[in-house]
Specification:
Blueprint lengths: L1 E2 L2 H11 L3 E6 L2 E6 L4 E4 L4 H17 L7 E9 L9 E9 L3 E4 L2 E4 L9 E2 L3 H11 L2 E7 L7 H10 L3 E5 L2 H10 L4 E10 L10 H26 L2
Parallel strand pairs: 1-4, 5-12, 6-10, 10-11
Antiparallel strand pairs: 2-3, 3-4, 5-11, 6-9, 6-12, 7-8
Helix pairs in contact: 1-6, 2-5, 3-6
The structure holds the ligand O=C(O)c1cccc(C(=O)CC[C@H]2O[C@@H](n3cnc4c(=O)[nH]cnc43)[C@H](O)[C@@H]2O)c1.
Enzyme class: hydrolase
Function: Catalyzes the hydrolysis of futalosine (FL) to dehypoxanthine futalosine (DHFL) and hypoxanthine, a step in the biosynthesis of menaquinone (MK, vitamin K2).
GO molecular function: adenosylhomocysteine nucleosidase activity; methylthioadenosine nucleosidase activity
Length: 232
């Protein structure tokens, strides 16, 4: 489980309980709980999140205990009115929204330039089960390197990605690291602020962290069953 910052990691950890031991790796510290998943505060932004997740995945594989699933989790901006404050979103598509080139005719994703990928798709059955268990919305979660701060940018993003429910900064990086090692990925986000004009007073980070804990409490059996039965 990869969050950006420790406060998100601890919100997820509260859903699982049990003491955790620290596994200190070069560039990443994994919390290994007795009753739940390994937890990693992977850093803010897609690059650091990818690097830290790759370290944790590689260490587990070399240890002969490869992970069966990587989950990117945390708070996010929600596109109003589709994803209200406090709502949970499970991504059926994890899309890098600003990986590409700006042209006079608009934005071109790197795939149009002949490179790489801009979207990872979590297993559909897992998305369905996770969303049903947690009472979450499903749709595209965008990964951005710059937090949206204007209505114009929010409108442009939704025009390019009409199924987008939320934006955050790590999912695509975590998904790239997981895909490089053939491990499926899931992204679960709790909405802390609307995507749009910058307004720090509108943030509800505490409520979103509470929603994250509640959501993972409900998701726990789904994740356990996935790891036990589906892909080990
Ligand atoms: O200073 C601002 O205006 C601002 C607005 C929203 C979020 C931030 C952050 O620095 C948090 C980044 C952190 O949290 C996730 N996150 C939460 N809301 C958003 C968002 O609207 N757009 C993108 N990322 C968001 C993100 O995954 C980072 O880990 C600052």
């Amino acid at each position: 489980m990869a969050t950006a910052v420790p406060v998100e990691r601890d919100a997820v950890a509260r859903a699982f309980g049990g003491p955790a031991e620290e596994l200190v790796l070069p560039g990443a510290t994994v919390l290994r709980g007795t009753g739940g998943p390994d937890l990693l505060a992977a850093g803010v932004g897609p690059a650091l999140a990818a690097a830290s997740t790759a370290v944790a995945l590689t260490a587990a594989a070399l240890d002969g205990r490869p992970y069966g699933l990587v989950v990117s989790a945390g708070i996010a901006g929600g596109f109003p009115p589709h994803a209200p404050l406090g709502s949970l979103v499970v991504a059926d598509e994890i899309t890098a929204a600003d990986l590409g080139a700006e042209t006079a005719d608009g934005f071109l994703p790197v795939t149009d330039l002949g490179f790489g990928t801009v979207t990872h798709r979590p297993p559909a059955a897992l998305v369905r089960r996770a969303a049903a268990a947690a009472g979450a919305l499903t749709g595209t979660v965008l990964t951005v390197s710059t937090v949206t701060g204007t209505a114009a940018r929010a409108t442009a993003l939704r025009a390019r990605h009409p199924r987008a429910l939320a934006e955050a900064m790590e999912g695509f990086g975590v998904a790239e690291a997981a895909a490089a090692q053939g491990v499926p990925v899931l992204e679960v986000r709790a909405v802390s602020n609307p995507v749009g004009p910058r307004d720090r007073a509108a943030w509800r980070v505490g409520d979103a962290l509470t929603a994250l804990t509640g959501g993972f409490g409900k998701l726990a059996p789904v994740l356990e069953s996935w790891n036990r039965h589906d892909h080990q």
